[in-house]
């Protein structure tokens, strides 16, 4: 089976700084793929390249075998890649449903003029987005917050709303940048279960995460970056037993020891 997302020799330089240096990896359909590494290792830069926010200095990104690294982020989204960001980017003064509806805009035909004049296209699109929005909100278990202002929700719930909005794109692959950052242990546990449900529903997921328990329990394959370079790509067991990972990133014995359950 071919890879869903593949990186070939990706480099990203900011002036003299080599943020990502010659990183190749692949994500299979059905993977929950973790990207880990110390602060500044190049994880977010790599995500930004995969999702078209940055153009790589060198190398190629392929989605279903097609080169996408020359495309704009909206074009990549249209081809089935959705993402969330490290800092929550919801519209705080809009309801959960309104936030999720925004995710559908690439599937609708409404132009500004249609919304101003309330044309037939606008009404049809509005019915479609409301219905689909409610379905997704129900699917992610947020029905009771449908009409709540996003800014009034607990942090963990806001993260779920962001993921719901990304799902509105009907993506083949979902990129999550530190989804558990700032969550309490219960919220993190719920997020882990949520990701398992999404994966069982058929979504392929790539996730940057610092929480090692989260990564080791949720991901079937993991990429480890250090100073912009790949030092390991493999199963959680491969990563735990990799000498370079232990020495360069975790310090000997931490991964294999009690810290990771
Ligand atoms: N737009 C930019 N311009 C200049 N340098 C940048 C830019 N974006 C990232 N960098 C630098 O590239 C390196 C990698 O940063 P990046 O944010 O990708 O790391 P990270 O692994 O995601 O870190 P963290 O875990 O702290 O989020 C860092 O040295 C960072 O300062």
UniProtKB/TrEMBL annotation:
This is Amino acid/amide ABC transporter ATP-binding protein 1, HAAT family. It comes from the Bacteria. It holds the Pfam family BCA_ABC_TP_C. GO terms for molecular function: ATP binding; ATP hydrolysis activity; L-isoleucine transmembrane transporter activity; L-phenylalanine transmembrane transporter activity; L-valine transmembrane transporter activity. One of its GO terms (cellular component) is plasma membrane. GO terms for biological process: D-alanine transmembrane transport; L-alanine transport; L-isoleucine import across plasma membrane; L-valine import across plasma membrane. Keywords: ATP-binding, Nucleotide-binding, Transport. Residues 5-252 form the ABC transporter domain. The lineage of its organism: Bacteria, Bacillati, Bacillota, Clostridia, Lachnospirales. The keyword Cytoplasm does not apply. It comes from Anaerocolumna aminovalerica. SUPFAM superfamilies: P-loop containing nucleoside triphosphate hydrolases (SSF52540).
């Amino acid at each position: 089976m071919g890879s869903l997302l593949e990186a070939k020799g990706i480099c990203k330089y900011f002036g003299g700084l080599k943020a990502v240096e010659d990183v190749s990896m692949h994500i299979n359909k059905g993977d929950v793929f973790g990207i880990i590494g110390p602060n500044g290792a190049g994880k977010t830069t790599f995500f930004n390249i995969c999702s078209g926010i940055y153009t790589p200095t060198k190398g190629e990104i392929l989605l279903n075998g097609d080169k996408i690294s020359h495309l704009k982020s909206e074009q990549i989204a249209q081809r089935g890649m959705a993402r969330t960001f490290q800092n929550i980017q919801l519209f705080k003064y809009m309801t959960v449903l309104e936030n999720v509806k925004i995710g559908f805009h690439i599937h609708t035909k409404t132009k500004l003029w249609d919304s101003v004049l309330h044309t037939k296209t606008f009404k049809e699109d509005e019915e479609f987005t409301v219905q689909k929005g409610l379905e997704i909100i129900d699917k992610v278990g947020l029905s009771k917050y449908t009409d709540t202002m996003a800014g009034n929700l607990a942090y963990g719930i806001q993260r779920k709303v962001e993921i719901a909005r990304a799902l509105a794109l009907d993506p083949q692959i979902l990129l999550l940048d530190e989804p558990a950052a700032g969550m309490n242990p219960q919220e993190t546990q719920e997020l882990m279960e949520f990701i398992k449900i999404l994966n069982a529903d058929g979504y392929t997921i790539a996730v940057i995460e610092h929480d090692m328990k989260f990564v080791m329990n949720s991901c079937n394959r993991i990429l480890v970056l250090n100073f912009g370079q790949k030092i390991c790509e493999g199963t959680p067991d491969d990563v735990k037993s990799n000498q370079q990972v232990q020495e360069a990133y975790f310090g000997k014995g931490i991964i294999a020891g009690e810290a990771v359950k």
